[in-house]
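hey can u run this one w/ flavin-adenine dinucleotide bound, need the structure tokens asap thx
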Amino acid sequence: MKFAFTEDQLLFRDTVRDFLAAECGPAQVRECAAGEGRSPARWAKLVEMGLTGLTVPEAQGGLGLSLVDGVLIVEEAGRAALPEPLVDQIAIAAPLLAAFADRTDVAEILAGIAAGTVKLAAGHPLDPFVADAGDADYLLLGREDALHLVPRGRVTVTAEVSVDPLRRIAAVDWTPGNDTLLSADPAILDRMLDLGGLAAAAQGLGLAQTMVDLAADYARTRQQFGKAIGSFQAVKHHLATVQVAIEFARAPVYKAAFTLAPRDISHARVAVIDAAAAAARTAIQVFGAMGYTYEVDLHFFMKRAWALAGVWGDRHYHLARLSRMVLSDDAALGADGTFADK
Amino acid sequence: MDLQYTPKQQAFRAEVRAWMAAHVPQRRLKSYDTAEGFEEHRAWERVLNSGRFGMVTWPEALGGRGADLIEWLIFEEEYYRAGAPGRVNQNGIFLLGPTLMEYGTAEQKARFLPRMAAGDDIWAQGWSEPGAGSDMAAIRTKAIRDGDHYVINGQKTWSTRAVFADWCFGLFRTDPESSRHHGMSFILVPLDTPGITRRPIPQLDGEPGFAELFFDDVRVPVGNRLGDEGQGWNIAMATAGFERGLMLRSPARFQETAKRLVQLYRRHEARVSPGVRDLVLKAWMDAEAYALNTYMTASRLIAGGKIGQEASLNKIFWSELDRSMHETALSILGARGELLASGLDEADDITRWLKGFLFSLAGPIYAGANEIQRNIIAERLLNLPR
Ligand SMILES: Cc1cc2nc3c(=O)[nH]c(=O)nc-3n(C[C@H](O)[C@H](O)[C@H](O)COP(=O)(O)OP(=O)(O)OC[C@H]3O[C@@H](n4cnc5c(N)ncnc54)[C@H](O)[C@@H]3O)c2cc1C
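ok here u go:
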């Protein structure tokens, strides 16, 4: 029993964190939002670092890492509110496709993901929109318990506007065919939802921490009544309360990345949705009117968190799913139940 | 990351489980806040010690098993799973024990630790005073040097189990001219020393769970001082360090409560409003989160890491979790929830919820009130100005 990341995993995380701090700081996110919304230069660097191939099998030119490695990177993408669609590639598309790598077309696509030449979007039937559908080369889409791998040319994309200026969402119209079918395994769409839920949860952790950090920075400098507002106890306690919620959402996310068990993913998902919502509402309160503006960077992180709260199964979906697993006769509950349930 | 128990850990779990099945008293012991219950619990400590299960993390020479923190968590899981009695000597074994191991002389360790492990000495803590609660540096009780003794005068309060305990440890001002956190020493005091008056204080449930202690020219040998004279504050802070942060409340306790809450909810599901389900799920999630967080901390410490501000984050989390679980249970119980004692079959469970609820209200107050913990998180973790 060892619930810890390796030195290597943490080192890799730190490298990515430093990279994103340099290349995707709040000012760069703002710049991106004011311009094209995506930075091809940054994407090229992400590819160069091997990040797009993080979870692509080594045989297809990827790093062949697991989601335990991946979860830390996805958390960093959340921390930075990374605009480019890295997360859905490494945490949803590649892990799903890797199981079908013996198909030559799939192997080629995986190689393309690793090389940064092919982009995938993923959409679950529960969600009305698909993120980054317009720019994708292929889409992983579900219909009637089956998962399809659909070339961009076979779908009609109608762009919608997200509250998050950096999310590109779209309604996707398509017709499944035998030639698009990837898997009819009745569990495949649940797996897709689990991967998406984990990805959203890990990003939410990072987003929540950034919101607290931004608010704490502001509270150290903004003066009222002759002192930094961060010296006021009401402000301190608001932020401390959120920090507690973040800390206790963290371990469930990491465990979920290891087990990929539905119970763990739903737990992580709900804990992070709540922590990130609390972080957003607390951070805006600490910023005062500044926080209500488009001028201050906070809103990029709040909006990403709000958007991610609803996708890949919202709070209600995951609570309902949890209730079926936890409030049942065969649930592993109690003091020895933590690692007993798979 | 490897979330599976090793064969050795599984064997340890099996051993604890079998031992508990054979030894945990069938009948719930009387409350340790009563004279009779206190002695029943002392007897249980002796039984535990006879199986070398009194304090598994202690070295073998002291009756322990030299267990690491993961094994300690396994032990606690089996302990709570078996419904074993509360630890009447928890102030001794969880707080003073580790402090003695770090700061005690060889003579002090030999003198106090085996008796503590055997339940021969049950310990109370003496920090708080009428004028010093959250602000512990405001304590005034003096211990003035007179030859090879200290002469103690003053008053301690809220001392848990001090009504029946054998000893107390705490902070006393050995430099009468000192103020704040200077000039204090950590002293161990036998509670039957002449000059000590104990006034039981009934708690919310009516039982004398803590006491006021009056010291009137109480003479204690200098050899009962832990560490150097004047070093008391630092030692007290170390006591509040990792052992306390991790060991004061093990996750198993809350996971068993969450399990009982799930069972209670399922029995009453048909009549309670739908929103209660989410509160029950939240209780389960939070108890799991606390366990997972503790496993992460334990893994980090085993690998040589240091404890940070986890103690403050943990304190807030478990105490608020415990309170909300009990509030939810009472809301499910409705009108039956006011039952403190009765002949009904289910009364034992109801009484447990009610008493647990009363006690859960103390969680956010003792061991450093949650407001103080929030100050610590804000100032030391988030670097907000004092
Ligand atoms: C069940 C129980 C068992 C206990 N057992 C022991 C024991 O064995 N030994 C022992 O020595 N003590 C014991 N205590 C006492 C405990 O340590 C104190 O209650 C605790 O330190 C708080 O002190 P106080 O009660 O004087 O409250 P106060 O310090 O008066 O605080 C009252 C309220 O004011 C708030 N407050 C105080 N200062 C601040 C601040 N700076 N910022 C914001 N809010 C603040 C507190 O958070 C609290 O909400 C026990 C208490 C309880 C309830």
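Chain B touches chain A through 61 residues (CB under 8 Å). anyway lmk if its weird
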